[in-house]
Amino acid sequence: MAALNILLIDDDGGDGKLMLRLLKQHHPDARISEADSGESALGFAGSPADIIFLDHLLPDGTGLDLITRLKEAWPQAVLFMTTGHGDEEIAKSVILAGASDYIPKSALSAEALKRMIANGLKVADMRWRIQEQQNELRLFSDVLVHDIRAPLRAIKFLSDQIQEEYEEGDLEEVSRQFDLMKKSVNKTSELIERLASHINPHSDGRAERVSVDSLFDSLRAVLAQDLAESGARIDWQSGGLSVLCFPPDIVQLLQNLISNAIKYSGGGIPEISVTAEPAQSGVMISVADNGIGVPPEYREKIFEPFKRLQRGSEQPGTGLGLATCAKIAKRHKGLIWCDPQTKTGTTIRFTISLDPLPARETA
User: What is the gyration radius of the CA atoms in the chain, in angstroms?
Assistant: First the structure.
């Protein structure tokens, strides 16, 4: 398990030291940040926080008043309230406001904190999974209604046309209409496959430590036909690293990025660089190309489901490839982004952060 990022908000120095000592007993590798007020706590916004311990009474207000702002800054964090007042009404208000649990300071112990954190993380993970599934089902229904309607209408129209042309004996036109129908069927099939892949990327199995070279070898096999047909040239730089990951997912992620680099090459020969380098708690992999590039205003939107570049709209696809990449990166506790410093072409980077240890070179 990766080291936890804990934000401790308490204006009492003695209580803060006690919390630190108790937390370190069962989470010695935890990265703990301390704040003595609500405003100083919000100053950590942008830094990771898995767990937040919030004192009920602070110099600039109550912890209850602060919960909403903390949840906005760290929507996935598990939040616990601590107080010297064991008031049941406070406990109810805290839970209703979005905290996961409540504990009087008189009941603090290393075991109690360990139990709270373990239960809180399980509940938070379950809540986020349910929310993600609800969002995916909503998106799935939207695209079924919108995107599948057009190719199905085309198939119905073409079947009527084929019947008419067949009855008139125009077999040449029948053949042409069949070709058009196959394209509509292929488009529908591609959409369904993309949806299935996006909604349920590989969810079975355990993370494995593998060499980045082995991931690249799998990619070469998967992309062999695409590389041959496009004439794309790829420079592979593994750095001799190994990484803890779900290999099929990472191969799929890289396949999506490289396929996009080939698809949006702008008519030239695709020149692609795939580079791995050490990053905090894992590896960062970059895919850089010499294609049409991504305008600055689209660099965040392209990772949303069904979002596509206006100028790439003539290319086949559903707009799910990069959204699936984002899901896979998230599953690996990593991030994915389009490098804003790239002047020509596109560079997309993602991190794999399942490992509490830095990436290692392979023998």
Answer: 26
Q: pLDDT tens digit string along 140-181?
A: 666 566 556 666 777 888 888 888 888 888 888 888 888 888
Q: Is residue 107 part of a domain?
A: yes
Beta strand residue intervals within the chain, DSSP E = 5-9, 31-35, 51-55, 57-58, 61-62, 78-83, 101-104, 208-211, 233-237, 241-245, 271-279, 282-289, 336-338, 346-352, 360-361
Q: Which structural domain, as residue segments, surrounds residue 182?
A: 147-199
Residues 318 and 239 both lie in one domain: yes
Query: pLDDT (tens digit, 9 = 90+) per residue, 65-94?
Result: 899 899 899 988 999 999 876 666 777 788
Q: Are 306 and 318 in contact (CB under 8 A)?
A: yes
Q: How confident is the model at residue 95 (pLDDT cuts 50, 70, 90)?
A: confident
Q: Hey, what amino acid is at 188? A: T
For the chain, give percent helix, strand, coil, nearest 5: 50, 20, 30
